[in-house]
Amino acid sequence: MPRHRCTVYSESDYDDDDDNITMRCLSCEDDYDPDDAGTCKECYDEANETEEELKRQIQDLKSKVSFLTLSSPLDAPSTTDLVLLPSTDAFSPSIPAHKAVLVSRSPVFRAMLENDMEESRSGTIKIADVSYDALRAFVNYLYTAEAFLDNQMACNLLVLAEKYQVKHLKAYCEKYLISKLNWEKAIVNFAFAHQHNANQLQDAALAVIMENMDNLTKNEDYTELVDSNPRLVVEIYEAYLSKQVNTAATLI
Amino acid sequence: MPRHRCTVYSESDYDDDDDNITMRCLSCEDDYDPDDAGTCKECYDEANETEEELKRQIQDLKSKVSFLTLSSPLDAPSTTDLVLLPSTDAFSPSIPAHKAVLVSRSPVFRAMLENDMEESRSGTIKIADVSYDALRAFVNYLYTAEAFLDNQMACNLLVLAEKYQVKHLKAYCEKYLISKLNWEKAIVNFAFAHQHNANQLQDAALAVIMENMDNLTKNEDYTELVDSNPRLVVEIYEAYLSKQVNTAATLI
């Protein structure tokens, strides 16, 4: 076989014809032009090893999560030592739980149960402004770090997470609500996030609002917000103004 | 600048001189020969995204592990509802714990505590053949999925993990012991692993023994094992024979 005129190449790793030189990618096994080159072989091997190592770490962590997850107290209430009671529904059943778990997950429950407060003595914690379903999902999350969310449940759990300072659950709900954000929901989410100190959600909602300033005053939620919390509407305009000033500065 | 005679190359991604063509790796930014090419640019970008995604997953899982980890009952014994007692030391203090945690981590504790057995009624579980330090580390692991191991502690915890069927801890100890395996320890570990159904450790120890068959009969632990458990010594020879037969078969 006649050798190509660029004799530094070996034939094994790339193909050539008269007009074109291509190499074969070790990952997708397609041919590519030298213009589209990515890495050298050493870095390719290293990246592969890194990926394998990261996957091993994920496997180990998943197994640790599974080990540390507790059974829901609703499935096995025999060893529970207190109950939670949703105050909105006088006829709803109470939800059994363990002091040890509540104390471990929430500094608010810790303060409540480790000091000699009414809740600690009576073994009953009344939770205001919450439905049975939301409270049940909240308690379940404290044991399993899992919850089935829709928009309403994410809002309900975020409120409870903020009230009882369960940071992990709050971040979980914010992440869900951010993933579902759009212009329809942006103003309501912005106001909700502000009310419950959900900074990440508030920033994300504000970013969506900034992209839709042309339609702002036509939005019904906007009109309501002007009535209910004009100070918050000012925050939107301040952010808009600041963005415009910055954009102008970069154009000079 | 005169263009190289292989005109299909653009100059941006590779350098050339009269005798040699090199490209620049996007990862290490070193030059390389086409012979040492790894991936195309598309696969390089994809691999980068995958790595980022895996790292995000690891971050999420670590935060979940941290959320699910319970405080050790030794740090906050106020809500505990039973004690564990190491039977080897009559004067050692008892170790407080929560039925709910023990039940959740071990099917043996579950059976013991969910049925109306002596331990459940008295709130005291006596643990045979264990030191205070090992039992304390065992209980701690049930809450935190963490333990500080040396060879002795790994063996002690493996025995407890097998007895109380705490699979996660057993795997953790096996992994540690395998990482410390060498010819000095291989026979002792092989016998120990066999006694406590630690299959992975047993296989790993057997592999080390297979590599040192020349020295087998000179090893003191071997002599002891022939006395104490000749059936297990037969297993070593059977594995050796089987390996030899297989090797011979591949050579034909």
UniProtKB/TrEMBL annotation, chains A, B:
Keyword Disulfide bond: no
Annotated GO CC locations: endomembrane system
Main subcellular location: membrane
Gene3D superfamilies noted in UniProt: 1.25.40.420, Potassium Channel Kv1.1, Chain A
Keywords: Coiled coil
Residue ranges that the Swiss-Prot or TrEMBL entry lists as coiled coil: 40-71
Subcellular location: Endomembrane system
Alphabetized InterPro entries for the sequence: BTB/POZ_dom, SKP1/BTB/POZ_sf
Tree of life domain: Eukaryota
Pathway: Protein modification; protein ubiquitination
Annotated ranges, domain BTB: 80-151
Membrane topology category: Peripheral membrane protein
Cited Pfam families: BTB
Protein name per its UniProtKB record: BTB domain-containing protein
Species, as recorded: Trifolium subterraneum
Organism taxonomic ancestry: Eukaryota, Viridiplantae, Streptophyta, Embryophyta, Tracheophyta
